## 1
Amino acid sequence: MCTTCGCGPAEHHHHDHDHGHDHKHEHDHSHHDDNTHEHDHGNEHRHHHKVDTTAKSITVETDILAKNNRLAAGNRTLFTSKGVFVLNLVSSPGSGKTTILERTLRDLNGTFAFAVIEGDQQTDNDAMRIAATGVPVKQVNTGAGCHLDAHMVCHAVENFDMDNLDILLIENVGNLVCPASFDLGENHKVVVLSVTEGEDKPLKYPSMFHNADVMLLNKVDLLPHIDFDAEKCKAFARRVNPDILIFDVSSKTGEGMNAWYEWLGAGARKSR
Amino acid sequence: MHEMSITQGVVEICESTAAGRRVLSVVLEIGELSNVIPEAVEFCFEACTKDSGLEGARLTIERIPGRGRCRECAEEFAVKAYYGSCPSCGGYHVDIISGEELRVKELEVE
């Protein structure tokens, strides 16, 4: 089923293995009576033959996110080999991610070949907005899930002509917490914060701002009308992540978008 | 609530390591900066282990405190959150050296 990423066969394998393994395992024990309990990789069943049945405690030391990280590494290898520049856009709901994408796609569509993955719990509303720009888009509905993971992305990209793609934009589920932990194989996480939110959001949700390389401070056209201290907000973001690159933008008026486009273009050319 | 996915990952790792044997207890290491709430994992653990080889297993979560090293003055110190500054020079350029762990440490099987 999952021929592209290889995850499916591994998973199936995994279950089959569990069953067949029971017998084999016990069988082996009478012959392998050493006391080695080293299990670096939970998924590498073949290593388990060494286990002594009398030993009850097993040292595991396996990263819980290892599976996602492995699939993300697979995605990254694919993106690199195809020369595609990939961004993972994260933010709270309503910061303007989709509007930023729409404007970016309309302004740059002739210059670069784009594709978009839209992550939402439900509806394909955002995918329809992106499709209206003429760019290939795949909607991923996570249902009860609060984030995209590397497995979802690995199947979503099967819908695109990766050989003829320059930039893949992944709009994650609107959520400033959970997507921070899940690598998708992107080049950079881009966090979007709008000036209608609190200026202390980087401190309230530090993991996301710590893990992002770029921050788009959106809706700056509204700054004259609201009490939002943009400099203070940027100082908070740099406290959490001193290296974060910040662009002030308005996806509505287009203010500041050129600097973002230049950065995007430079990344795409470098990835080719 | 990404703790549900995290806990499903824990169950997968334990089941493959246990290779068919019943799991009696699981020890996890969760760093204080890992963005994962131990109480939420405990809550999800019961739901995720139902009808699995881990049903009824005892869950122990060991917390690993955050520690950082200042890039300016090389001071090492406890980090409560990513925006913590260096107590020695006040700098924010801090490399995290522990506290981001998310690991299955060990299991006890039947």
## 2
Amino acid sequence: MSILVANGLTHWFGSQVALESVDLTIDTGEHMAVLGENGAGKTTLLRILATAARPTSGRLEIMGLDALRERRRLRRKIGFVAHAPGLYPALSAAENLEFFCTLQGVDRSRAAETLGEVGLSEVASRPAGQLSRGMQQRLAIARAILHDPKLLVLDEPDASLGSDGADLLAGVMRDRTVILATHDHALANRLCQRTLVLRHGRQVGTATRLHIVQ
Amino acid sequence: MSSTIAIALAVARKDLRAEWRTRELVPALAQFVVLALVIANFGFQIDARNAPTIAPGVLWMALVFAGLVAFGRTFAAEREQSSLEAMLMTPASPVAIFAGKALGATLLLVGCEAVLLPALTLFFGTPLSFPIIATVLLATIGMAALGCLFAAMVARVRARELLLPLLTLPLWIPFIVAGGQAVQVAMGASGTYDQALALLIDFDILFVVLTSLAARFVLDE
């Protein structure tokens, strides 16, 4: 059963097209990687699929809801890790998550649980600004799964995660539908069943696991 | 409704906690308002007769510029940290987020006013009375609502430091006129205090309602 159906997603930045007529269907529980060089439109596509941005044209349906009209309802069910961690440097790791627990409407005890899931329990009281880039990325991932979303949209989450990053991501992605943008083809092959390749904003191909992306 | 209030309070608490730990804004603003008063003290020939006329003008000038800095930082910092998007990606109402940001900024400005008003009494010899405090606090509410709305609008623009005063100052004029009149009367000049205060309350209600309605469209890109 499809959890996400996109038709003709197009996005323009001024006179420049960032994404051109992307069609996409993702089944429930499927893990899909989005590959492409810098500027290929990966981030734009992921931001649209996460409901963080509106496409210039096209249709997007997520979990049976019109994603352009029902954005707030859908955000209860979507977790998004953006390019930048977007944390509050003066607040501790735990305080950052507790704050987002309030915004998500979930119990504050989820903050400690989630910190454990991403391996940050020991630095829970340390200000986010004093955490390493990799730890900040883990904290951003923890924030994205606080409300136990069905759909997880991850924009290059492996960028600074370190050697055990793939294992962490595999754990976080379990039992969820995931769209993952990455430059790491090996990681995409390991974690995802399907790959979408973008070039200059255009969808140039899809491949299933273990296919070599040309 | 209760979740809206809880979210607004959580946002305000988060901003105040971050300010308490970093002490980025309030000490700098407090220094700024004291320096403004020192300069005004040297710039004007102030005596017991003209103090009630000049001091309110100096008070509102200092308050307006301190407010522009305080409200400008509320959303600029969120944009720089990319944390505003993280907040907006939650199911929390943009109105609740806006109300929390405005409440936090208001309380930070009230912290500056706690320095400004006694300093005004010290430099200008004007009284520090309840009517003056009430007037300044009432004006702060409406100014904060408008200031935060425009700060949210210009936060994504590069020239935000220039745009924010251009957009905000014209709409702050009613607060400065009514507030200035009320403070002048409270300091001993002739006029009606109650009328000016009633006008301030009317402006507060009008602009708080309007900005709450507009916040949704400004924040929810």
